[in-house]
Amino acid sequence: MLVTASGRYASKMLERHIAGAARELEAAGIGPGDAVVVCLPNDVRWAALVLALARLGAVSVPLNVASAVEEIAYVLEDSGARLALLPGGAAHSLTPRYPGRLLWPDGIATGGRVVGGDGMIRRSGITTIAYTSGTTGRPKGVLQSDRAVHLGGTSMARRLGWESDDVVVTALPLAHSYGTNVLNAALSVDATLVILPGFDETRLLTAARRWGATVLAGVPTMYRRLLADPLVRSISGVRCAVSAGQSAGPELGPRWEREVGGAFVEGWGMTELGGFAALAAPDLANRHGTVGTAAPQATLRVDPDGQGGDSRIGELVVTGPMVTPGYVGATADCVSADGWLRTGDLGTIGADGVVRVVGRAKDVILTGGFSVYPAEVERVVAQHPDVREVAVAAVADSARGEITCAWIVLRPGARPTTTQIVDFCRPHLATYKLPRQVVVLPELPLSSTGKVLRRELPVPA
Predict the structure, then answer these.
(1) Cα dihedral 263, 269, 274, 279 sign
(2) CA distances from 138 to 45, 135, 265, 351 (A)
């Protein structure tokens, strides 16, 4: 069952939405293997469209509704999508550039049949292309199999003990793998799912009280903001709070359990896995500060390289049916010939199988549960006419975990303000990727080979 803030949709109503969306898509010429971009707000319509695409054998390409026009344009070109369901403004902006594609403003069918785009996915079993930023600065389209997407939901529901009488409340973007997992987990056990259009602590707490929430799903930033609201003590019926996207640290879980009750559990995964690789069960002892044990059908190991001065710490690698077969137009060079995915995250696995993630080998910035790659932001900032050099890295932030900071070297005589730099980036980057701080330096710290030494960038005042 699906619920929104404006009303309740029982299983029969959801089926009507799916059937109607399937008819619209099929009438537009969408069939097996066709890639379709879905860049719409959280709502029942989003869920129905994605489920309808799966029913038709088509491939959904979910995008965060906050994506900038240029980000959408890149995905359209890279995926070769034959149809895109976009916010009205983005659809109207892009229509002249892609006359051979069918773009539906606000996801509303406009008639006509798709005639352009070469997004026929010829690999069997692929149901989703999930775009994630790459270290080269351009997003990569991760191919996710039907089995991986299915496991992402069912294994989550099984590990957390969800049942049909549960009420799950979330403000996670459905376009994110974590949000998709929550959707599929609820559907797999016919639980009630309350989908909010975005995160606002008062709105979420009000919805949780109204519908009698038993489960919450979010990122650490959301839980910290909920704990700061006095209304949080009114949702003591929540028996399980699921956190992922970035580390919650050792204190957030115990504090939540003291002030709200229920179990606070963490999970860890990545887009290349279609969901969780590890997840803590509510009854796991000493779970706080860990991400639990390996998810069903996932096998984890540590590739010990001695990083961090501890021989037990190494790169976490994963194998199983959820591992991606590759990217759009490329093989997955992070996957070994025998199917082990190198995650780029550092951690340990205890004798009891409990996984602890202790750091990242890559320079990913985790802000409010979203991943931001420095190279992607650097590529945009570097295009500003006043910027000669730029380096981007994370700065700790109490609300978001981390924020994006840009250190720049200006061209002679240039004096741009921080606002001017950020405004320049807005058309090219989603809001959560924008630099929150800009620091001007006379020069960047470089290694002998000319690489930026991110660890030597001065902490902003």
Answers:
(1) negative
(2) 29, 7, 33, 39
Give the dihedral sign, CA 157/162/167/170: negative
Q: Which amino acid is at 199?
A: F
Handedness of CA 228, 233, 235, 237 (dihedral sign): positive
- How many Å apart are CA 311 and CA 366, to the nearest integer? 26
Of 244, 239, 254, residue with least CA distance to 222: 244
- Phi, psi (degrees; rounded to nearest 5) at 157: -60, -40
At 154, list the tokens.
């069912």
Q: What is the pLDDT of residue 93?
A: 94
Look at residue 122 in the predicted model and tell me its pLDDT.
66
Q: How far is CA 52 from the centre of its chain?
A: 21
Tokens of 309: 């001065």
pLDDT given at position 4: 61
Report the SS3 class of residue 291: coil
CB half-sphere exposure, 243, CA atoms < 13 A: 27
- Report the C-alpha gap between 186 and 167 in whole angstroms: 9
Sheet holding 240-243, edge to edge: 7-9, 2-4, 192-195, 167-170, 215-218, 240-243, 263-270, 275-279, 293-294
pLDDT of residue 307: 41
**Positions of the chain with pLDDT lower than 70, given as ranges:** 1-10, 115-123, 133-137, 305-311, 359-362, 447-451
Q: Could you tell me the two tokens for 282?
A: 């509510």
Q: Is 20 strand, coil or helix?
A: helix
